[in-house]
Amino acid sequence: MSLHAEIELSRGAFELDVAFDVPAGSVLAILGPNGSGKSSLLGCLSGLLRPRRAAIMLGGRGLDGLPAHARAIGLLSQDPLLFPHLSVLENVAFSPRSKGTGRARAREVARHWLEQVDAAEFADRKPAQLSGGQAQRVAVARALAGDPELLLLDEPLAALDIDAAPAIRGLLRRVLAVATSRVTILVTHDPLDALALADHVLVMAGGQVVERGPTRVVLGAPRTAFTARIAGLNLIAGTATADGLRTADGSLVAGMLAPDTDVGEDAVAVFAPSAVSVYPEDDGHPGSPRNTVKTVVGTLEPHGPVIRLRTAGEGWPAGLSADLTPAAVAELALEPGTPVWLSIKATTVMVHPATP
């Protein structure tokens, strides 16, 4: 069953005003900076917050106005929130029991879901005897054991260590893929979560929806600085021209216009850090790319197998990222404050319409 939501909420000076649809059997990822309204939105959907106005339809059933326990919603957060005095089996069985299922049947359902999340061997343990990853597996089982029509995932991997998170991500991908009628909403800061689990992405800022669409489209061609940052891409704002993008200071960033970009409209130029070449200051005006500009190294940080350089200074190159090998960083003697030239081939720069 599909979800349709229109929600308005006032909390002090903060105003939330969003509307969206989620098809049956699909996963919507909600992204946004801190304070954008993600948690407030989940609170309204779950019934933990009372909005100023809401129209929330799950299938043919209206949820707005219903208490939290009557909404048939499952919630999984970064804290497993297992009952410490109950065994793992009884923790999972609590979900169907709370909906009126008999004890024997509830335990049968619990054992099924513990098997599904590869946690059957922990059935007799108490939560204190589990690792963080094991406890989150049990929490996934408990969230699904109640057969929720709407599943809310609130940063479910944020508290896990680097070894446990991929396993739980893979587990969620597997169990969500077989849910053909359930609607799932995932709040996350990690683009890997969105790419691995979500069919569509909704990006929020200041209580409003600023981007939405298929996950790979939104993260591959972001229209806002926040989305570009979490997608690991560079973004420059300006006005579309026939040759690329004109920035606020009058500079031209040469690039390729996307099919939906019109000359003269607000636009953004997007390109990967791997497309940025870095040269020492004494190279003069290096290379043949049309986009060549002088700037200053701001920071250097490990980023997987490469070193990510982020620039400082002013103008359109400020804050750009470039990926270099450790050997290149050493050879160029780069450190914060080092003047450098950046070059970006026009063919690697795509210009898209900006979000209104």
Write a structural description.
The strands form 4 sheets. Strands 6-7-8-3-9-10 form a 6-stranded mixed sheet, with helices on both faces. The chain is elongated and about 80 Å long. A hairpin with a 2-residue loop joins strand 9 (200-205) and strand 10. Helices cover 24% and strands 34% of the residues. With 356 residues, the protein is α+β, with helices and mostly antiparallel strands. The two termini are 31 Å apart.
How is this structure best summarized?
The chain has 9 helices and 21 strands. It is α+β, with helices and mostly antiparallel strands and 356 residues long.
By DSSP, the count of extended strands is 21
**Could you say which overall geometry the principal axes of the C-alpha atoms support?**
elongated
Low-confidence stretches: none
Strand ordering within the main sheet: 6-7-8-3-9-10
Range of helix content: 10-25%
Instruction: Kindly estimate the percentage of residues that lie in beta strands according to DSSP.
Output: 25-35%
Task: Report on the biggest sheet.
Answer: 6 strands, mixed
- Secondary structure class reads alpha+beta
Distinct helical segment count: 9
Give the SSE order as H and E letters. Answer: EEEHEEEHHHEHEHEEHHEEEEEEEEEHEE
The Rg value, from CA coordinates, equals 24 Å
What is the overall pLDDT average?
90
